[in-house]
Inverse folding.
């Protein structure tokens, strides 16, 4: 997804909460100082001067304060991660966030101004191919789409029509049902791969034969403009431009997306 340069900044919000490894930190509590940079377009609000087109800073501050007071984490890393997830869920327009949690009273026994954790998270645009040629094919595909739609780290944007295609490769097997999904995700590429593999395993996917039959097949085709050569995960998918059963549904939902290596649009590849 394209990064915007607009930001709303909340600096040094003080919250008294109970987070820490030690029992006394959880019981007695301490001060935390939170800063947030919200990556969000301010143009409409700036042009119109209309509050409804802006983000309510007071609401954001209250969300942060309430969340940190109502939850207890051993690590401020966990507090930051879960707070970021909540802010993405609460603010639809939020594209990315930089979140810093400072701990000025950290019990380390040495003179220090504070310790802190700072994280940056953002939505990434991914395209995933879905397929099945065993059992109740449509049920497996619909189950995968539903699971992705209901995952807090994903926003399902579009799903193609399902097409019936002949199997790819030398193995004799039933016809496939194939489609593609467009989604925004907070997962890293490897986290997304693990999530999709879990969905395959939940559908009793068995990996016994290359290009063999499967109850559910979920392949990451594209992830932003990323190019990777990792042994376990290659992006863009190395075979996608050769497969009409991938390009046809992908063209339906994203014809103008450009393959980052071939520098061609999906419609041209098809």
């Amino acid at each position: 997804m394209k990064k915007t340069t607009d930001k709303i900044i909340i600096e040094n919000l003080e919250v008294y909460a109970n987070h820490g490894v030690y029992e006394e930190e959880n019981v007695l509590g301490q001060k935390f100082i939170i800063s947030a940079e919200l990556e969000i377009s301010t143009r409409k609000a700036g042009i119109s001067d209309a509050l409804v087109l802006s983000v309510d800073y007071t609401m954001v501050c209250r969300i942060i304060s309430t969340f940190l007071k109502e939850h207890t984490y051993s690590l401020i890393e966990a507090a930051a991660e879960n707070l970021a997830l909540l802010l993405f869920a609460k603010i639809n327009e939020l594209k990315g966030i930089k979140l810093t949690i400072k701990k000025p009273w950290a019990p380390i026994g040495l003179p220090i101004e504070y310790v802190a954790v700072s994280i940056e998270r953002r939505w990434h645009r991914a395209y995933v191919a879905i397929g099945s040629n065993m059992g109740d094919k449509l049920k497996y595909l619909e189950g995968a789409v539903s699971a992705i739609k209901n995952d807090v780290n994903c926003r399902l944007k579009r799903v193609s029509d399902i097409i019936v295609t002949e199997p790819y490769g030398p193995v004799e097997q039933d016809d496939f049902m194939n489609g593609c999904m467009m989604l925004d995700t907070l997962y890293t590429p490897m986290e997304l791969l693990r999530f999709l593999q879990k969905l395959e395993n939940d559908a009793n996917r068995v990996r016994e034969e290359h290009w063999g039959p499967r109850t559910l097949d979920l392949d990451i085709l594209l992830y932003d403009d990323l190019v990777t050569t990792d042994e376990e995960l290659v992006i863009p998918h190395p075979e996608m431009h050769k497969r009409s059963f991938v390009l046809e549904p992908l063209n339906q939902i994203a014809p103008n997306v450009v393959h980052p290596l071939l520098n061609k649009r999906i419609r041209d590849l098809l």
Notes: Residues 76-90 form the longest helix (15 residues). The radius of gyration is 23 Å. Residues 124-269 form a domain with the Alpha-Beta Plaits fold (CATH 3.30.70.560). The chain is about 30% helix and 30% strand.
